Amino acid sequence: MAKVIENPYRPAYETTSAVSWILAAGVTQFMPYIPPQLAAASGMAACLLGLLRGWQAWHVSERKARLNDGGMEFITPEKMMAKIKSVSSRGEIWLGSGFEWGAEEANRLAHVMGDLRGLVSKKLLLEGNYWIHGVGEDEADVTMPLVNLNAQSLLVGTTRAGKTRFLDLMIMQAIGRGESVVILDPKGDKDLEASAKRACRLYGKPELFASLRPAFPETSCKIDLMKNWNRPTELASRLSALVPSETGADPFTAFAWQAINNVCQGMLLINDRPNLVTIRRLVEGGLDGLLVQVLRTHLSRYVPDWTESYPAWLKRARNDEAAALIGIYKAAGNETADPRIDGMLTAHQHNKEHFQKMIASLIPILGMLTSPPLDVLLSPGVDLDDPREVLDMGTALRRGRVIYVGLDSLSDGTVGSAIGSLFLANMVAVAGDEYNYGDCKSPVNLFVDEAAEIINKPMIQLLNKGGGALFRSTLATQTFADFAARLGDENQARQVLANCNNVYALRTIDAKSQEYLAESIPEVDIQKVEVSYRSGADSAEWMDGYSGALGEALKSEKESMFPAPLFGQLPALHYFARLSGGRFVKGKIPILSEEKK
User: Fold this and answer.
1) Facing residues of 504 across strands?
2) 10 Å Cβ neighbour count for 290?
3) Domains defined for the chain, CATH in brackets
């Protein structure tokens, strides 16, 4: 039996048939030569056929009308909260409305793309191709199991495509579930901050919200970015990673790491906690004072009688306290030696001029991070007269806090990038602590807008391994090239992308980004009808020497289920998503009615 292929967007030919049957039903009632019983029966049959054809015509017309169903959708906070509560109780996250995308939708798409004339309003085409969403049927809520968020997410979209609104939707749901939320926003979007603050208020938990805004220090909270760590060497790695380097392993970076590590190890030996201000002071001013304190503490612990020989050593060292203590330490032998102190001694004996040259690239970074007001915001001390809240990420995340960090990169990109990178490294330390020693009961949701501005190796580690500690990361970017530009290598950029199993694509105009998105979309069979015709004439015949033929053939071609160029034609707030587990979804998100104005 031959397979019938029908254009789903053809004219509604059934309309004429429906009208004809309805008219026939009426006419039969007035024909005098037809018995009444037969007239009634034939009229009823004609009406039924007319209704059948009318329903078929309506179905075709309704399918075409969906192609022009454009515009934004709005939802009240109350309705959104009710919807979030419903899906959260089922262990799911709500991603707006839409439908599953498969081979059937791809074939409808091919029919529409073949000829848009008469199908789509020219006005809607100016605002974006709303008809892409119109090819779907049975639109419903798009949901995804919450456990899939552990596989990390990527949100890509150009300017004004709806990234902030999409993040709003996910942030509000995370707050509603009572989970910790951290928002890193390089540009300091006031709308994003206000949305998170409003969500806390709507759920009756305004006290959970905190904001770190270097641009507004008087209202900002204070966060010590050097408080959370598992091994002291992490602090050195955290700061040395900010030193400009082409490879990350050049001598200047290594020397900077060693200088910071000596300071941190020394402070910990005397039970003092390192912070950015003290690290800068000791790196710039030298280790002499710290070394004296460290040696006194060490000798008191392991060489109880050192004070008896101290006067002789001090006289021999010509009243140089550091030299005297070093002499006693070395004389005590290897049994009391400490590798951390040995490292400090090596730095102490290093040529001062050469030392300053080797850390020349580190000094400006420490200066940036400790200049007012950052000296107080990022290295907070005890100040009972300061009403601003002091936080550390480990405690804050265990208590389910919602923290917004506006980096103000628009006015000071270098400092904003450095703060963001330190913040990410701090998050990795917290994740590692939870993974190794915590019970990981409550997830932590990390949202990074314009992620390419602060992406670093700790962030890649968090994407790769954070799921085990219930760290759920969502990165937002405009193009994939931004990651390559930041990391200096396309392979590292792809490493970032490969760790994000959920990809939400809003309107994306960058060609390479479109190609990357299309790479993970499978090809399907697109059914096409090929029409052929021929005609000819035989000169040997007189009257009937003409011949002709018309044929139709059904052909199937492998094409992408969602062509790459269409990513650049999506309207604002519309997205195409590849979800963990191999699902493909076409969806759109609403705007809270409070934002309608």
Assistant:
1) 155, 577
2) 23
3) 14-68 (no CATH), 77-224+380-523+561-595 (3.40.50.300), 233-370 (no CATH)
The string of DSSP codes covering 363-418 is HHHHHHHHSTTHHHHSS----TT--S-EE-HHHHHHTT-EEEEE--TTT-HHHHHH
Helix and strand counts by DSSP (H, E) for the chain: 24, 17
β-pair type (390-391, 222-223): parallel
In 17-166, at which residue ranges do the beta strands (DSSP E only) sit? 74-75, 92-100, 140-145, 153-156
Which residue from 172, 161, 99 is spatially nearest to 136, judged by alpha carbons? 99
Alpha carbon 244 to its chain's center:
26
Averaged pLDDT in 10-residue chunks for the chain of 597 residues: 66 88 86 82 90 89 81 86 93 96 91 75 71 89 95 95 94 95 91 93 95 93 91 92 73 93 96 95 93 95 91 92 94 91 94 92 94 93 84 89 91 87 88 74 91 88 88 95 88 90 96 93 84 68 66 80 95 95 94 64
- Three-state DSSP class for 549? strand
User: How far apart are the C-alpha atoms of 226 and 215, rounded to whole Å?
Assistant: 21
pTM: 0.87
Q: Could you give the angle at which helices 190-202 and 163-176 cross, rounded to 10 degrees? A: 30
